[in-house]
Amino acid sequence: EPQIAGTILKRYSDFSEPVREVVLSTLVSRKEWTRQLLADIDTGQIAAATIPEDLVRKMTIHLDQQIADLVSKHWKTIKGASNQQMQDQIARVSKLLGTGSSDVYHGKELYQQNCAKCHILFGEGKRVGPELTQYKRDDSLRMLMHIVNPSAEIREGYETYLVITVDGLVVSGFLFDQDQQIVVIRGADGQNVTIKRENIDEMVKQPKSLMPEGLLDKLSEQDLRDLFGFLRSSQPVFK
């Protein structure tokens, strides 16, 4: 198995961004593969800043000192924003949305870049998080609260589960399907993982949403107006 990670990591720089997301999610699912990934990060072959925070958190699930030391070395803190910081951001953006005008066409582009990989709106996107078309999207403040602090209120059926198998595989995501023989976990990358119940060592519901924090941090003030202008649209937007 270690050679699998080695082969993938040798080709990592050739992968497109979407493929890298899948590759990273796969590598952090096993302790030995995580060690190999961190070794490449430690030598500078892969930039630590390019690893999503949710995957860094997933690395720490492996109870391994080598992994813990390297995570601590390259990510001084992986704590999320405080509740006060979130409240301040909600207040600031809410006030901003009451000013200026929005370009819903640009807002749609921003939605496709930042939201569609997990949510469906007007038939576009993937079902990782809740479907948004019927959501009360004219309430900007409520939408803001869910985006800025996604773990404050997790919709039923989208709770995050952590599954550890008897052979050390770690899988996290929401419970997409289950019966007496199997459980199906859908991860943040939109991929389903089917696990036989007899192979499950531990399965625990997590208090944190699969949706990451900080999604609005990289957007400019006009980007925010445009994105929320599109999110509040009552009809599909076509150019």
Gist?
This protein is of the alpha+beta class and 239 residues long. It is 39% helix and 13% strand.
Report on the architecture of this protein.
- This protein has 239 residues and is α+β, with helices and mostly antiparallel strands.
- The chain has three domains: 73 residues, no CATH class; 91 residues, Cytochrome Bc1 Complex, Chain D, domain 2 (Orthogonal Bundle); 47 residues, SH3 type barrels (Roll), CATH 2.30.30.100.
- A five-stranded antiparallel β-sheet has the order 4-3-2-1-5, with no helix packed on it.
- A hairpin with a 5-residue loop joins strand 3 and strand 4.
- Helix 1 runs parallel beside helix 3, helix 6 runs antiparallel to helix 8 and helix 7 packs across helix 9.
- 26% of the residues are buried.
- The model has no long low-confidence stretch (mean pLDDT 89).
- GO terms for molecular function: electron transfer activity; heme binding; metal ion binding.
- Keywords: Heme, Iron, Metal-binding.
- It comes from Gimesia maris.
Topology:
Blueprint: H1 2-10, H2 17-27, H3 31-42, H4 53-59, H5 65-74, H6 83-96, H7 104-114, H8 140-148, E1 160-165, E2 170-178, E3 182-186, E4 192-196, E5 200-206, H9 221-231
Antiparallel strand pairs: 1-2, 1-5, 2-3, 3-4
Q: What does the radius of gyration come to? A: 19 Å
Query: How many structurally independent domains?
Result: 3
Query: How confident overall, as mean pLDDT?
Result: 89
Query: Topology as H/E string?
Result: HHHHHHHHEEEEEH
What is the CATH topology assignment of the largest domain?
Cytochrome Bc1 Complex, Chain D, domain 2
> Would you count the extended β strands for me?
5
Low-confidence stretches at least 5 residues in length (pLDDT < 50)?
A: none
Walk across the major sheet and give the strand order: 4-3-2-1-5
CATH secondary-structure class of the largest domain: Mainly Alpha
What is the CATH architecture assignment of the largest domain? Orthogonal Bundle
Helix content: 25-40%
The chain-level structural class is alpha+beta
Q: Proportion of β residues?
A: 5-15%
Pfam families: Cytochrom_C (PF00034)
Keywords: Heme, Iron, Metal-binding
GO molecular function, one term: heme binding
Organism: Gimesia maris
